[in-house]
Amino acid sequence: MRDRRNRAPKPLQIYDTHFPHFLTCTIVNWLPLFGSPPIAEFILESWRFLQNNGRMVLYAYVIMENHVHLIAAADDLSKEIGELKSFTARQMVNWLQARDARRVLAELARQKLAHKTDRKTKCGRREATRS
Length: 131
Prior knowledge:
Number of helices: 3
Shape: globular
Distance between the termini: 32 Å
């Protein structure tokens, strides 16, 4: 079996942006990070920002302890979700570092892809998108 961590993931591609899409964003290794209210708030803040700036319409969502589901639409949904995930991951890592959460940070660092030299950790998994 090949080590998938050293492979570059395929970019998220959404072809028909005129309709809402169901998306799932998952924390690597199903770590229960969204169970922490401050971390869950990072997701909510990101969604509010995108909606308030007319960049995304959020129709529905549910935040579980280790993943989120959402139904959303945007002119460039792939781009908006990518930026949302990047910003939210950075906020989560900063929050964990401020609390010296070494065990969780070490697990996130183990999941980082080898080709990602601009960061020390990986928070999310790539999930399939359905419309």
